[in-house]
Amino acid sequence: MTVREFDINFNTDIFKVHKAADLEVAPGQTLNARRVSGVSKENSAADKIWFGKVYTGPGEISDPHHHGEAQTGGYVHKGRGFIRYGEGYSNIVYMEEGDFVFVPPYMPHIEGNASKTEELVWMTTRTPDNIVVNLEDQEIADIEIDYRS
To answer: Which of 1, 97, 113, 147 is the least buried, fewest Cβ under 10 Å from its Cβ?
Structure first.
C-alpha cells in the first residue's frame, strides 16, 4: 500500500457538485424505471461508480432487465416498491422508505411501484457503471401485487 503525503489540494481540480435542477437522464433506460445520473462518467471524473435516482410512477412496473457485471445497491428514498425475480419472476419482495437492497450482477429482475397513488424514488449506485441490459420475450408469472395506496 502506498502512503501519500498530506496535500490539502489533492484532487480538488476534479471535485464536482451536481445540482438537482441540472441532473440529466442517464444512459441505459428501462420502461417505467427512469434513471437520472447524479455521479457518473458522463458528468464527472468518476470511472468506477454510477450513483443516481430511479423514478417509477404510481402503479408502474418496469420491463425485465439486469445490470450485467455491475453490483447494484438500492435505497428506497420515497414510496413503497417491489422487486420480482426468479423463475417467471414469481418471487417478490416489498420495500418501504428507508430500506436498502443489493442486486447481484446478472440477476434478472423487475422493479415496480407498490402504490397506485404515490411516486416511487430509489437512490441507486452501481459499480463499475450504469449497465442496463433489457430482456425481451420473458415468461412472466401472473401474480397479484399488494398495492397499499
So the answer is: 1
Mean pLDDT value across residues 80-90: 98
**pLDDT at residue 112 in the model:** 97
CA distance 120 to 97: 9
Continuous segment of H or E residues that includes residue 74: strand 71-78
**21-44 CB burial, b ≥16 within 10 A, e <16:** eeeeebebbbebbbbbbbbbbebb
> Could you say which DSSP state residue 30 is in?
B
**Residue 31 φ then ψ, to 5°:** -50, 130
Q: Name the β-bridge partners of 97.
A: none
| CA atoms in the 13 A half-sphere facing the CB of 122 | 28
